[in-house]
Each structure stands twice: as structure tokens, then as C-alpha cells.
Amino acid sequence: MANIKIMALGGLGEQGKNMYIVEINNDIFVLDAGLKYPEIDMYGVDAVVPDITYLIENKKRIQGIFLSHGHEDNIGAIPYLLKRIPVRVYGTHYTLSLVEDILKTNKMDVKKFKLFRINDKKVLTFNDVTCSFFNTTHSVPESIGISLQTEDGSIVYATDFNFNPETEDYYKVSYEKITDIGKEKVLAVLAESVGTSSLGRPTDYSSFEYSLNNILNNTQKRVIIAGYSEDLLRVQKAINIALAKGKKIAFIGKGSDRLVNFARNTNYINIDVDAIINLKYIDDNNKNMIEDLVIFVTGVRNEPYSALNRMAKCEDRLIHIEKGDSVVIMCPPKSGSELYVTNVINELYRSDASINVFEKKHLCGTHATNSDLKMLYSMLKPKYALPIKGEYRHMYDHSQVLIKMGYNKENILQLENGEMVEILNGEIVNIEKHVLTDVFINGSLVGGVNEKVIKDRETLAEEGAVIVNVSYDVRTRKLIGDPSIITRGFTYKLPDEQLHEIVSNITVKIINNALLKKTFNLEQLKDVLQNEISNQLFRFTKHRPIIILSILELNKPKNTKE
Ligand SMILES: [Zn+2]
Hints:
It is a single chain. It contains 15 helices and 24 strands. The chain is α/β, with parallel strands linked by helices. The strands form five sheets. The chain has an eight-stranded mixed beta sheet with strand order 7-6-5-3-2-1-19-20. A six-stranded mixed beta sheet has the order 8-9-10-11-12-18. The radius of gyration is 29 Å and the shape is globular. The N and C termini lie far apart (69 Å). The structure holds zinc ion. Zinc ion (ZN) binds next to loops.
């Protein structure tokens, strides 16, 4: 008879920062530790990670953190977590190789941490819990699902998977293992929701391969293929086609080092090393116009597009796209990047090359569709289902799949981040709400940023800044010269001179008035001045820029306290 608690620290009602905890009696099992990139501009915030206060408070009870696969929304918060709680980390070879890479990037000593490589044959025991793994098909190699077997049945974590008929090494589903888990009692399944709304996408790579083949056949010069480095399976499929046609291959982009190194050292990408060409920097004599060349431009987020943009504008150091080249885009824009991507594609068209864009609907999905979920639930037959990973709409659609399969609403737990469900002896007894606050990460994964700083940066970017420098003589109590006004980031209709005049006049007036008074408080003066400048600017421009005041006191007598 077990006491089980399940809670999401991130991943519910959002896309990113997936992190789930399962408590079985006294032991805590952490599933994934991902980050999220801000959906809207949060100035200076590079990423958001889950609130791990609960884990810090209960760190002695943590048995380990189990990683499903090597995507940033599942492993990106690892450095942040390990800095605070250096717990054991379990993952496949590929996933942990990426983790090591991330730790090194964050200047953390890999040797200091306990990283344990597992595979789908491994079985681990922790007190009353047996932990096993099953391989899944996703867009990166060696993705796994996790099963925690308790006295009251298993708890199965199945995030980022599908049941596409994949034959590529490192991407095959272990169906037997899933059915084996389903033969015993399954208490709860935590399965992803993000693919539930993607109807009509291909479920294999055949149409993609067919189109890419045609493009390669009909290109006179070079083929430039842009893809996300996290979509490794798609990159692999494209490499296969290029190799089958006897093409030479070059890699460009920040993500390429990792891809190529992995290909050479660990065979996670199947590629004949003899086919790889190192490009040379462009100068007058060298245009990298090599016969039968296929160039992969890979990276994360907007990186492939910024590289294409440079190539189209002839500003890249390696490739300038020209007539006769073909560009293949197999990285549909992420939400928030659509406008930028449209601009880059327009720029590419100017180069007169042949531009081929695979939209999302043309590309094979990498997440569980409704029918994948149905298949999973048919194999596992859990008592409770917890839709995870996805926005509310995805989780809602996921719940609908379960209802159509005959599940009662009481057995579908559509939770929010921080809601901890308690299951005692196989029955839900309580749902308790923990308050979580997002942690903003600035630059490195070490420290956070508070909301005041973000607010300032936001104002600075949207409203601009006014910097006022003025000095006065403390003895004569008179201003020295005119105030100097500097404006930054202004896009208002008011001409600069007029704006400077307004600010200058207020400054002179207010400081002169203050200097006439018997008592004089600099801090108070700054407050008054700041407010008055802000109000006047708002009157004329309907904007409130950040105002930075620098008031210099000259001829100050010594031993005077400020
Ligand atoms: Zn993933």
C-alpha cells in the first residue's frame, strides 16, 4: 500500500520547462528539468526555469532526476538545479552527453556530479520502487519513457513520443517493454499533450524524402538545407538522401559542431566522414562553389534563419547564395518568430535561387497524436491519466481523447503547475496547491533576475531614455552652464531639439527654485525633477521614458555630509 504524490513544477498550461515530481512513500523521483524561452520579449531574460523550492526543502528525500531525452525543455534547467541540489542524474548516453556539454558550457565540473547512464534494459531499485525504461521515437536519439513500479501499480512517464514506424537506429520504440508494463497493474500515466491538436500531418518521412530527392535532382549548383539541430532525425533523413546521391556534405551553424562531433565520435548521426567537406572563408578566389555540395545550416531557435539571412545578403563568411542554388527550409518558425522568418524568406527570394519551404503541415510530427495516445492507453490501461506537457488547449484535447475512450472524468487529472495530487492505496485522497513562481534566468544559468529589472528594461526598449547631466556650484548656489540632455531609443514625432528644450527648461526652472530655498535636499530634488520631466514628456509625447539624472555638486566644502 503506497502513498503517492504527483506534482508538476512546470510544463502544464505552457510549452517548456517540463519538470514533474513523483513521491512514492518517502522517496522523491524527479522527471526532467527543462527550461522555457520567453514567448514574448522579456528584456534581458534568456530563459525561464521551474521553481525548485519544494525540491530544495525536501532534497534529502530525492532519489534522483530521470531525464527522458535531450531537448532543452526537458534538460535545460539541469545546471540551475544541480548548482542548488547536486542529486543523481539518470539518462541515456546521448542525453547525458548533452548534459555534460551544457554543464561544461556553464563552467561546471562534470566530474563533481553523479551522472548515471541507463538504457531500456536497465532496472533500478529504490526502497519500494522499481524503475525501468522503454525506448521511444522522437526527434532526438535515445529518447525514453520511464516506469516507476509501486505496490499499487506503475506510474508511467511518456513524454515526447510517437508510434511512427521508425527504422533508424536510436529511434525505435520498444513496444514489447510497453506491453509488458501494461500486463501488470498501471496506476497512472503521465503522457504529453502537445501533439493532440496537430491533425493531418504526415506520420512518416516518405513525402519529405520524395520532395527532397526531387530538389536534389533538379539543382544545378549547391543545395542549402536549413534545419533545427534538435530535429536530429529530420537532419539524418536529409543526410541519407544526400549521401545516396553521392553528394558532399558541409555543416554550418552554431549547432553544427555538436552534430558533427557526435556523428564522428559516437555515430549518433550516420554519415560517411569522407563525404564531409570543410568550407573555407570566402575571399576573391574562393566561393565554396563545390560540385555536388549539400550544405546543412543548423542551429536552435532563429539561428538557421539568421545564417540564411547573411547568406542571402552576401554577408556570410562561407556561403553567398546565388542563382542556380537551391534553398530547402525544413525548420518551420517557432511561435513569435513568424515575422522575422517571413522577412528572411523574402530576402532569400531576392537572391534568385530556388526556395523550397516545408511548412509544419508537410513535415512528419514528432509528438504523440490522438491515435498515438489511444494506442498508448490501450497498451497500458492506467487507472488514472494525467495529461502533461502542453498548453491548456492541448491538455483539453488530450482529455477528450480519454473521454472518447470511455474514461470517467474523475480518472482524468487535468492539473495545473503546483497542484499536488495524493493517491493513497490506489485512490485519490487529496489535491493540494503549492504556490510556484517562475525563475528568470539572465545570461548564465547561475543567477536570477527580478521583475523590477525586467520592467526597467522593457520601458527602456519601448519608451527610450532621457539622460540629464547638470552641475551647480554649492557655494554660489548657481547652475554651471546649461544642462546637457541626451536621448536614446526615441521614436516619437517630436523633433529632438524641441524635446531637449522642454527637458532643459524644466530642469533649470526646478533646480533654480530649489537653490533659492534655505534647506536643500538633493534626493528630494531628484524626485521632483524626475516626476516633472516625466509628466511634461508624457504631455507632449504620450510616452514615459526612463529618466536618468546626474546632478554634479561642484566646490563642495570638505567634511560636508551628503
Ligand atoms: Zn522533445
